[in-house]
Every structure is written in structure tokens, then in C-alpha cells.
């Protein structure tokens, strides 16, 4: 069985980029042709939305799979639409994996240990997509209930060659409300980082990184560099690039000297590139996939200017 971080790093090296495409569909922003097609096939609103999300994400996967290592579907946008949305998410994960992509399901789960175990078993398929119903390679996890609640995720991830990313320093404006709280001179996020690094070290693969990673926002570049140094064996998932205002310079501190150790997410900036300059001027609304492709290539080039080339050459 191959270790999660080793598989992810191989994918990053193969595609020569740490760019991660988020799949965050919004019904009101979908291309008209996709909405029309879903309306012709379904009757209820939930089925129409779910059908449209599925086609939209399938087509994004077709565009980005040749050039990026991984995708991150955001479960919330699918769960909002009930069973139809969840069924679409499941098929999207399957499609992304068949396209050779590493799939990180962003569902931010967490609960008391015995319940966390059910989340872990349900989401974390790791290397064998048949081993969990949601068939993800990796899941985002909320550590608020305590370090004992991370254990079931660690155990299942280790058994199945899967991974988790634990929320350490999130990208939102209010991240500091709880995460910056200090006890004995240590911030809460530094305390969580310490626990995560221990788990990363314990689950280390053939390379430098563990199966347990951390979510750290690109919108806090100083903390990002600090956490890279504090967590040398922890792979980072870095949201906040693009629509939330962070640029390639802000994420430079996330990488190790070989250019590994982090993947950088953009969701709206890629999914809905057609709605924004310069793509809205370059392409007509029906050419939205070309806009997705151009935005992905631009992100890859942008990141390359600030990523140590090292292992990505
Ligand atoms: O700290 C966090 C943790 C998760 N996210 C998620 O990432 C994407 C970001 O979307 P953009 O459109 O690129 O802003 C979204 O799914 C968030 O829920 C985050 O932004 N910050």
C-alpha cells in the first residue's frame, strides 16, 4: 500500500505544480447551457441543481486533470441539496479519481472518538476507492473536540493509505477569534500545530511527510511561514489564494526548500473564471471551459514564480 503523502508528492512532481483546484459550484453562477440541460432531464429543484453541479464539475475535471495533481470538492455545496446533491458529490469524487486526481474532500468533520470513527470509515478510502463509500483520498478535519478525536482518523488513514488535513490556522477574517487565544504564552493554533506535527511524524511515509496534514490559510503569510517551520513533517493545505485575496508571494513560505510540503487551493477563481477579468474579456460566456483552462494555467505559472523549483523540475 502506498502512503498518502508519498502519493500526493508523486502527483505534485508528475504535474510539476502544487496547484489544487477546488470544486465549489454555485447554481446562480453556472453556465446557462448546463442549467438548461439539467432542467431538461430533471423535475425537482434539488435534482436540477445536483444534475447541473455534476455536469459542471465533470467538465472542470476533464479540463484540469491533465495539469493539476488534486481536486478539493467542498461538501457543503452538495449537502445543501440533500440526497441528490450528495449522490452527485459521490460520482464527482469517483470521476476525479478515475481521472488520476488525488481527491481531498473538504467536509471539516470531527466528533467524539467513537463517532469520528464512523466519519473516518465513511470518507477515507485512501488508495483503494472501494474501501469507503465516499471514496476520498483525504478529508479535512476539525480538531476542536480534542486530540483523542483525531485518533480514529489517524488509524483509518494509516490502515488505508489515506490522509487528513486538520484545521490549524484558517483563512477567514475571524480566524484569530479562538485560534489566537493564548494560554501560557502559546496560541491555540500553535498548540494544535504541535499535536498535528507529532501525528505527522508518527505517520511519516518514505518521504519527509506524514499522512496527517494541516490547513493553514494563505491570507496569513507570517503564520504560514511560522507553521512551516514548526511542522517540518506536516503537509499543508493552503486555501485563500485568489478570491480571498492572497497571491503567490503570500504562499511562498508554505513550501520546503525542494518545493514540496504544500498544495495551494483556488476554487471560485478557477470554477468561475469566466465571470472575472481578464477571462470575461478574453472569452464569451459559452467558452467558460477555456476560461477555466486559462485560469488554471495562470495559477500554475504564478505559483511557479514563488515555489522553489527543486523537486518540481
Ligand atoms: O481555512 C479555510 C479552510 C477551508 N477553506 C475552503 O477552501 C475553499 C476556498 O474557496 P475560494 O473560492 O478559493 O476562496 C472553500 O471551499 C472554503 O470552504 C477556506 O477557504 N479556508
UniProtKB/TrEMBL annotation:
It catalyses: orotidine 5'-phosphate + H(+) = UMP + CO2. It comes from the Bacteria. PROSITE patterns: OMPDECASE. It is an enzyme of class 4 (lyase). The active site is at residue 108. Keywords: Decarboxylase, Lyase, Pyrimidine biosynthesis. GO terms for biological process: 'de novo' pyrimidine nucleobase biosynthetic process; 'de novo' UMP biosynthetic process. Gene3D superfamilies: Aldolase class I. SMART domains: OMPdecase. InterPro entries: Aldolase_TIM (IPR013785), OMPdecase_AS (IPR018089), OMPdecase_type-2 (IPR011995), OMPdeCOase_dom (IPR001754), RibuloseP-bd_barrel (IPR011060). Its EC number is 4.1.1.23. Residues 18-283 form the Orotidine 5'-phosphate decarboxylase domain. SUPFAM superfamilies: Ribulose-phoshate binding barrel (SSF51366). It holds the Pfam family OMPdecase. One of its GO terms (molecular function) is orotidine-5'-phosphate decarboxylase activity. Belongs to the OMP decarboxylase family. Type 2 subfamily. This is Orotidine 5'-phosphate decarboxylase.
Amino acid at each position: 500500500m502506498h502512503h498518502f503523502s508519498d502519493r500526493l508528492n508523486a502527483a505534485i512532481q508528475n504535474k510539476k505544480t502544487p496547484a489544487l483546484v477546488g470544486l465549489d459550484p454555485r447554481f446562480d453562477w453556472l453556465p446557462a447551457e448546463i442549467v438548461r440541460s439539467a432542467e431538461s432531464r430533471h423535475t425537482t429543484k434539488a435534482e436540477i441543481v445536483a444534475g447541473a453541479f455534476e455536469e459542471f464539475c465533470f467538465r472542470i475535471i476533464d479540463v484540469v486533470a491533465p495539469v493539476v495533481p488534486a481536486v478539493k470538492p467542498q461538501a457543503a455545496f452538495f449537502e445543501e441539496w440533500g440526497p441528490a446533491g450528495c449522490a452527485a458529490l459521490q460520482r464527482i469524487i469517483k470521476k476525479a479519481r478515475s481521472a488520476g486526481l488525488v481527491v481531498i474532500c473538504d467536509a471539516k468533520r470531527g466528533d467524539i472518538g467513537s463517532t469520528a470513527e464512523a466519519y473516518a470509515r465513511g470518507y477515507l478510502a485512501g488508495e483503494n476507492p472501494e474501501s469507503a463509500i465516499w471514496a476520498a483520498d483525504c478529508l479535512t478535519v476539525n480538531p476542536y473536540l480534542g486530540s483523542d478525536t483525531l485518533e480514529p482518523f489517524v488509524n483509518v488513514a494509516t490502515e488505508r493509505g489515506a490522509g487528513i488535513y486538520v484545521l490549524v490556522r484558517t483563512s477567514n477574517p475571524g480566524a484569530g477569534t479562538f485560534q489566537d487565544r493564548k494560554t501560557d504564552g502559546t496560541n491555540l493554533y500553535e498548540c494544535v500545530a504541535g499535536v498535528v506535527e507529532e501525528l505527522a511524524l508518527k505517520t511519516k511515509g518514505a518521504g519527509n511527510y506524514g499522512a496527517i496534514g494541516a490547513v493553514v490559510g494563505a491570507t496569513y503569510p507570517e503564520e504560514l511561514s511560522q507553521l512551516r517551520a514548526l511542522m517540518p513533517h506536516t503537509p499543508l493545505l493552503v486555501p485563500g489564494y485568489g478570491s480571498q485575496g492572497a497571491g503567490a508571494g503570500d504562499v511562498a513560505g508554505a513550501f520546503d526548500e525542494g518545493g514540496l510540503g504544500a498544495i495551494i487551493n483556488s476554487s471560485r477563481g478557477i470554477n468561475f473564471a469566466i465571470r472575472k477579468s481578464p477571462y470575461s474579456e478574453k472569452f464569451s460566456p459559452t467558452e467558460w471551459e477555456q476560461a477555466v483552462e486559462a485560469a488554471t494555467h495562470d495559477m500554475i505559472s504564478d505559483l511557479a514564480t514563488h515555489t522553489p523549483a527543486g523537486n518540481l523540475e
